[in-house]
Amino acid sequence: MFVKKHPVNGEVAYTYIVSNKKLTMVAALGVTLGIAVFIFMNSMLAGFDKSSSEAFFKSIPHIRIYKDDEISKPIVNQSGKNIPVIVNPKVVPSNNTIVNPKQVIQLLKNQSDVVLVTPQLTVGIFYNNAKTQISGRAIGILPEEANQMFNMESYVVEGNVNNLKNNINGILLGSGVAAKMNVREGDNISITSSVGMTKVMKVIGVFQTNNSVVDKTTAYVNIAFAQQLMKKNSSYITDINVNIKDYNKAKAYAPELAQLTNYKAEDWESANETYMAATRMRAIIIRFVSISILLVAGFGIYNILNMTVMQKINDIAILKAIGFNGRDVIRIFVSQALIIGLIGIVFGVLFASIMVAVLQNYYVGGDIGYFPIYFKLSNFLKGIFFGFAVTFLAGFIPARKAANIDPVSIFRK
Amino acid sequence: MKEIILKTESITKHFHDPVEFKVLDEISFEVYKGEFLTVIGKSGCGKSTLLYILSTMDTEFDGELFIDNQNISRWKQDKLAAIRNEKIGFVFQFHYLLGEFTCLKNVMIPALRLGKLPYDVIEEKAYQKLELLGLKDQALKPSSKLSGGQQQRVAIARALINDPLIIMGDEPTGNLDSMNTQNIFSIFKELTQEFGQTIIAVTHDQDFAKASDRTIEMQDGKIINQNYKFI
Ligand SMILES: Nc1ncnc2c1ncn2[C@@H]1O[C@H](COP(=O)(O)OP(=O)(O)OP(=O)(O)O)[C@@H](O)[C@H]1O
Ligand SMILES: [Mg+2]
To answer: What backbone torsions phi and psi does residue A409 show, to the nearest 5 degrees?
Structure first.
């Protein structure tokens, strides 16, 4: 006859929890705070990363392909013969143009991981305002493709990006430039390129990326117009911008593109190395602090369970005398820990969700806008996983001690 | 033909702390199925120590211990726990019950651990055992709220729940009045005679020992009389 076995270990654990509500609550509260802070801090980290990469991709691509300066090499270098050659390495004078860009672009477009490819030409310019000149740069783009890549619409505050396409003399100004030059949509503005070409342009819009350096110096023009400013023909292109499926893979993927095209391929992280280093530091600190807090919570339960085991030493001796083995005793105290953990985790997740939801709608202002924090499932799963891992360990260590209790030595007392 | 249920061969035990001391010295005896055996001896002569060894809780001894025809002297802890659960019922000298559980649960727990019967059957059986010991009205009280004598009787009920082969008691009637002692005695008698269970009880109670089937007398860790005759 098959009999469904009553979970007696679980029942003992449950009874201990119910008859020591205060201790249970204190231990669970520790877990709650640990989990809540852990999830909260990691959500904040994810928010920071997301908002900063979003800010990056308003003006730079995942991977930029360009021709790097070449350093001259010694002409004579016979191997085997140990003749000292005196050389003076210099940058080889050549222009930084990409040869046959159409072909290179087509080649890049054929790659399966590549999503968007668009050429770009940057020209150093002066904005002329009566007697003064402001230096800056004009970025020549193909408006439709660039809009797709940088989502320019989202930060154009006046006018429309698409008007650039229909207006060869059009210029889209950074908000800082527009303010200094005192121009707005529909006005004219005169610029002079680094090669001395002066043109009068029509302002078709103003953009604001909230990156003040960009806003104060940059303007977008048609790429054909940029070529005119440089007095070059229509195949003159210095950069090819590439977006790939997953920008986190840019660093690994860039060398492949470099090899494919024979040009330098720079991923966005390398292009912003200083910033990325700061980001990594921030990530390390936040992870360290959040894990420490979880560990402190773990020590809390460990202490409380240790105390429970000490209080229950008589019970453990009796249970062992009536036929419970070491594994049963471990199960009793580990279940107790896990029930405490579960209560703590449920409230911790709830608490973290509330904090994230509230902060998400908190407007900080400035370059940041809304507080950069967001719900990321993996952070919640990590929090739940670590929460259980910590409570399990915190329960297992005293439980193992309890399992090794010798009942006779207790009864003799 | 009498069937041997428990046998010891030269069981010797030393305590090393605080000084080297031989508590049990070459203990050899046999207990038969259905026998009501009592152990007497002066305080400190080693009765409890012997009982802990017989109950398989204490494994640090020299010599051999046979229970139900198996030499269990060198068995692993887990296997011994299973033997205790199924075949041995134990009534302790002092520590009795799990204080946070009701009397009923205390009695049920060994049977729940064994898991051979459905929950409601175990519950019914536990009620019967409590009734047998005059405690049915206390069944749902937390065991810590009971008097010493009541607690001891709940412990006896618990020892009976799995219908063990052997019931061991370290002064099982130590806290009881004469009427309750009489009741326990007749329960033990009935268990041995009707159900063939075996009782090994340490006692200081002369009358209790006298009325049992056989009495072993101990002195300074030795058995000095396997069949004590009361004068
Ligand atoms: N853990 C121990 N370490 C050292 N000596 C011990 C230990 N436990 C018991 N003893 C000694 O062993 C001897 C036997 O003790 P035991 O408890 O078996 O006696 P007992 O016959 O049950 O006595 P009582 O009738 O008073 O219960 C005693 O002299 C006691 O002092
Ligand atoms: Mg004793």
So the answer is: -65, -30
Structural domains in chain B, sorted by start = 4-225 (3.40.50.300)
A366 φ, ψ (degrees, to nearest 5)? 65, -150
Residues of chain B positioned with their CB less than 8 A from the CB of A323: 81-86, 110, 113-114
CB contact under 8 A, B118 and A318: no
Which pLDDT does position A86 carry in this prediction? 62
CA distances from B95 to A314, A402, B18 (A): 7, 17, 24
CB-CB neighbors (< 8 A) of A328 in chain B: 81, 113
Contacts 24+ apart (CB under 8 A), B148-151: B148/B175, B149/B175, B149/B176, B149/B177, B149/B180, B151/B96, B151/B97, B151/B175
CB contact under 8 A, A321 and B57: yes
Domain parsing of chain A, residue ranges: 8-56+276-411, 63-70+94-269
Mutate to test the interface with B, among A5, A322, A324, A412 (most CBs of B within 10 A): A322
Which protein residues touch ligand 1 with a CB less than 6 Å away? A 412; B 15, 17, 21, 23, 41, 43-49
Kindly report, residue by residue over A31-74, the tens digit of the pLDDT.
999 999 999 999 988 888 888 887 788 888 899 988 887 666 66
Burial label for A385, CB within 10 Å (0-12, 13-18, 19+), is exposed
